[in-house]
Write a structure and sequence with these properties.
mainly alpha, Protocatechuate 4,5-dioxygenase, Chain A, 2 domains
Length: 118
């Protein structure tokens, strides 16, 4: 059964092509589950990114803390949440960035739609 895709403003559809493009990035972000790896990243971000063979565009987006750019470069929000956590952001913060809303307005929208727990 084929479904039609309606673009959602501010988002990037994570499909097979995005998954392939972001494999190294997502693998690196998964590594942030380990405190030791988070410390290694903090000690030398560039070297840590190169260790995972990130593209120059991905390294630049990491350096600039451009979470939305990382999504466009193949990042999956569930893996990028590990990086966002290093920055003190959560998934709702990223959702607010994507929609151009404040975090409070984004949370209210989620609650109104039945998709948030407060």
């Amino acid at each position: 059964m084929e479904t039609s895709r309606r673009p959602i403003q501010g988002t990037t559809i994570f499909d097979g092509a995005q998954a392939m493009k972001g494999y190294a990035l997502n693998k690196m972000c998964f590594s942030f589950n380990s405190a030791e790896n988070r410390a290694a990243f903090a000690a030398d971000e560039g070297a840590y990114c190169r260790r995972f063979d990130l593209s120059e565009a991905q390294i630049k987006a990491m350096r600039e803390r451009d979470v939305l750019g990382l999504l466009a470069l193949g990042g999956n929000i569930y893996y990028l949440a590990k990086f966002a956590g290093i920055l003190g952001l959560n998934v709702q913060d990223v959702g607010a960035l994507q929609t151009g809303m404040t975090v409070e307005a984004f949370k209210a929208k989620l609650l109104a739609a039945g998709g948030g727990n407060g």
